[in-house]
Amino acid sequence: MPDYEPHEKYQSVLLFGAPGAGKGTQGAILGRIPGFFHLSCGEVFRSLDIHSELGQTFYEYSSKGELVPDDVTVTMWVRNVAAQTTLSLFKPHDDLLILDGIPRNVEQAKLMDEHVNVLGVIHLVCPDKEAMIKRLTRRALKENRVDDAKENVIRNRWRVYEQETAPVLEHYSSSIIHEVDAVGSPASVLQHVLEVVVPIQDSHFNNPISGEPTGPDA
Ligand code: ADP
Hints:
By secondary structure, the protein is of the alpha/beta class. It has 8 helices and 5 strands, in the order βαβαααβαβααβα. Strands 2-3-1-4-5 form a 5-stranded parallel beta sheet. Adenosine-5'-diphosphate is lined by residues 19, 23-24, 41-42, 45, 61-62, 65-68, 73, 101-102, 104, 108, 147, 157. The site of adenosine-5'-diphosphate has 19 residues, from helix 1, helix 2 and helix 3.
């Protein structure tokens, strides 16, 4: 397999949905399956050293529930994904990249078009905003997250989602957008997510014979 050329776009699927819809949960499960690589933009931000300049920038915005500026975000994301590729944690010729938390507005979607080929968008839909806000509050208590610790910050994140993030859907062709009901157990949501992503993975990658070793755990 030749090395990955930097100008090649990463074949991707975008996990999309409001705060609390369960993108992180689904992404983490998918990321365990050979042939998928999950990268959460929020997790990359949280892994930064809080004393670094970028770490401080992240803290400044996320503690108010606001988005980190687009150029900083996309540059950081591109560097991180390149590093994962160098380390062979992500193999762009074998793995479908699961985008989670990026693009978060239309400007980011345009910037990301240089780097990713979005083959599908999974829109996790939950009609009950209050139920999702409760889910976020519970998670904040469990995971000690500054961004979700206060209800006004959560509500601000929702406002940002409705005003800036929701229009991202219009950036993509409706033919690749798949609505998935976000209400239900992680396993039942996963079942519907897999119905979308498995055919995409199958049609874009040469999958190894079942049982053949594929990853670092193999
Ligand atoms: P969620 O709980 O919705 O998954 P994340 O963990 O993705 O939230 O993001 C946490 C915070 O990190 C956001 O509130 C924001 O400040 C910052 N962030 C994450 N992704 C982006 C992005 N694509 N653009 C700008 N800021 C981002």
